[in-house]
Amino acid sequence: MAEAHQARVQNVIEDMVQSLEKDHIRKMQGRMFRCSAECCDRSTDSMAQVHQCIETCHTPLAKAQGLVTSELEKFQDRLTRCTMTCNDKAKDLFDSGAKEPAVRSLMDRCVGSCVDDHVNLIPSMTRRLKENLDSIWQ
């Protein structure tokens, strides 16, 4: 993927992840630490009970992080498949005798279209992630 296209996708994804971290993940981390501290305050519980309590406190955050990671992997896989299709089209054009500038032009337009399409998916992916993150701790 051309550097400009790659930078564009990376910037939009970074903005989304920072927003999710600030508005959702950070709050979940605070709840997890407060919950874990309360587990440690249980002076009558056994060590195993305290450890189990702490594990229970960590579960929602682990689910949230897994959810975000999974969505980002699916997004990356889709974008990769799209750019691989562009590579195939460029190779086919080159094999048919087209000159390098025409192939480069096709590749740039095709990858640009992939990036546009996938950047347009980010708002709905963000909305879905926020809804799922909100439901995890409840």
TrEMBL record:
A UniProt-annotated Pfam family: DUF842
InterPro entries hit by this protein: DUF842_euk (IPR008560)
One GO CC term on file: cytoplasm
Regions annotated as coiled coil: none
Domain of life: Eukaryota
Assigned protein family: Belongs to the FAM136 family.
Name by which UniProt lists this protein: Protein FAM136A
Lineage: Eukaryota, Metazoa, Chordata, Craniata, Vertebrata
